[in-house]
């Protein structure tokens, strides 16, 4: 239901299935199917489909608020649990698979695996990134990152 809730919020925010599909990088029919599944699962009509987009029903308005709360709680829980995974995700703009970092982890004998995530937009860095290989910029500091010289 997590995916359906994200899709539902995207449809509400964008006002249409097709705009939500573009934002989510899925087909409009996939969006339509997820919304239908969500409505069937909950047993209520959430959206009124019109030729000009969608309108949110009274039940849908309640779900908007609750879905935002549930998804925020899910993200917070995932963030708290990721420390038990024994995996570090290194974000880099160049996806260099930093050999120096790998050597340092092996040398320290920390029992973790390393994965890499390419960062294409430093204004919206994924929650899965634990460490970020970058040059300091004030914009990143505004996003809540703390900086330390690594090597």
UniProtKB/TrEMBL annotation:
Entry superkingdom: Bacteria
Keyword Acyltransferase: no
GO molecular function: DNA-binding transcription factor activity; transcription cis-regulatory region binding
Signal peptide coordinates: none
Alphabetized Pfam families for the sequence: HTH_1
Every HTH lysR-type domain range: 1-57
Keyword tags: DNA-binding, Transcription, Transcription regulation
Family: Belongs to the LysR transcriptional regulatory family.
The protein, known as: LysR family transcriptional regulator
């Amino acid at each position: 239901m997590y995916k359906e809730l994200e899709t539902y919020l995207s449809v509400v925010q964008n006002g249409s299935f097709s705009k939500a599909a573009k934002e989510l990088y899925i087909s409009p029919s996939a969006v339509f199917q997820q919304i239908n599944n969500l409505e069937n699962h909950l047993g209520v009509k959430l959206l009124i489909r019109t030729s000009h987009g969608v309108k949110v029903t009274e039940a849908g308005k309640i779900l908007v608020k609750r879905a935002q709360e549930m998804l925020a709680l899910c993200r917070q829980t995932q963030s708290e649990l990721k420390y038990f995974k024994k995996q570090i995700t290194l974000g880099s703009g160049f996806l260099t698979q930093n050999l120096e970092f790998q050597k340092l982890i092996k040398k320290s004998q920390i029992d973790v695996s390393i994965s890499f995530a390419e960062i294409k937009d430093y204004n919206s860095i994924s929650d899965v990134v634990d460490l970020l290989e970058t040059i300091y910029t004030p914009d990143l500091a505004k996003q809540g990152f703390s900086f330390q010289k690594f090597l």
